[in-house]
Every structure is written in structure tokens, then in C-alpha cells.
Amino acid sequence: MEKTEINQAAEIEKSIRKKFHKELFSPFAKAVRDYELIREGDRIAVCISGGKDSMLMAKLFQELQKHRKVSFEVEFLVMDPGYLLANRTMIENNAARMNLSVTVFETDIFDAVYEIEKSPCYLCARMRRGHLYHQAKELGCNKIALGHHYDDVIETILMGMLYGGQIQTMMPKLHSTNFPGMELIRPMYYIREADIKRWRDYNGLQFLQCACRFTEHCAMADPEGRSESKRLEIKNMIAEMKKTNPFVEGNIFKSVENVNLSTVIAYKKEGIKHHFLESYDNEPEGC
Prior knowledge:
single chain, Rossmann fold, 48% helix, 13% strand, globular
């Protein structure tokens, strides 16, 4: 690293420890504790897409290692699914500037889904996840960490209800079904996106806005990523509701922690659907 990069990395780390400790490091550590995301001897592949969320996550892992109560290792993993050269260069330059020693591997995912007309985003996401699991396992890791934050969680809940006709959430951790022994964790579960943006702007950082070849041209021209999408629609909806109910975000988040199965028509457990009529006649009478 050059001297200027060393100085900038030090300032970025200081901002996490001092100015943004309450907004970033504290909720990061709390999620790790609450959901038991890290255990003794873990080797975690911290997956970096090049965006603000995953880049911050990598720095938070570095900070956590300084205060760790259990011994664990990290591998900063970058997958290039076919980025434009400018975007690949941005990721590598930011990693150097932030003192992140990354392992980069290449795939042809963008080429593979380019001609797909039906659900290319779904296929792309599944392929990316599979490649990350495979590469992480090759590096001796037992977990992969993704940079989804609090806002992603509540938006996913509403998107499932309004566009998917189901109640579900983005889980803080999951066992892999296709890679035995591997696990996915989301340690930024409690961190608000607005605080991530404030940290980014405070440090004068610029990150890749979109990882997709089909939209990355637009992302470079639109640094806040304002392109129309269902997720953006949900963001705007939440913002409008918050004007009259300041607790709406917390209530959405808590709604999937306080599910009352006695008032649910039907639910699925391990892929099997259960209906309230199955046990209705065996339950005591009364409202």
C-alpha cells in the first residue's frame, strides 16, 4: 500500500471505531451475538460485490477480529461474474484503499444468463450464490457472509406479501442445502442503510452501485441507484408510511418475530403446508 492509502485506511477504520461506532459496529456485533453467527474456529468467506454494504461489512469483520471473544478467520472473497473493466478496477482500487486483501475469482455468469428472457435475475442470483459457496469451500471456509442490512430485511418482508402472496423474511443465517457443512450468515442484519450511506459520504468513498452487466451502465450514470424497480417502490412506500407512523419500520421487522400461528389460515413447515382446519375441531372453544 502507498502512504496515502495507508492513511485513508486508518481514517476509515477510525470512523468505524469512533464516529459511527453506535450506528455500525455496535449493531454488527449485536447481530453476531443475538443470532450466534460466529463460532470458535470458523473460517468465513466475506463476500464482496463492490458495493457500499459488502465493503463496509469487510471492514467491520476486521474490527471485530480486534475485539473477538472467539477465534475465527476471514477470507475476503470477490467474484467477477463478467464486470465491465471500469467496475472491476473500482473494486480492486477500493480494496487497496481500504486495506482489504481480497481473493478475486472469475466466472462467466453474465454471459450464461444474457439470453435468458424469463427470470434472468433469479437465475443469476442462484448461480452467483452457488459459485460463492463452491469457491469458499475450496478456500477451506465453512461460512459465507453477505452484506444484506436491516432495510433489505423489511423490504423483503413487504415484497413477499405484496408481490409474492406469502409471509417470509430474509433469515440472519441459513444452512446450505447444496453444500453440506456450509452456512450463510448476514451480520449486518441490524444496520440501517442510511447509516451506511453516511459512513460512505463521510469518508468520501465511491462504490459500485450495481453488480449487473445489464444495469451497470445506468448505475454509473445514476450514483444513487434511482432506477425504477419493485424494491424502490417498496422503499418509497415505507418512507411514506413513516411520515405518519415513525415506528413502521420496526413494526415490519418485528412482525416476523411475533407470528401467532393460532391466527394464521395456513403455513408451511419444511415444505409441507399445514391448514388451521387440521386441528380446529381438537382445540378448545372460545374466542
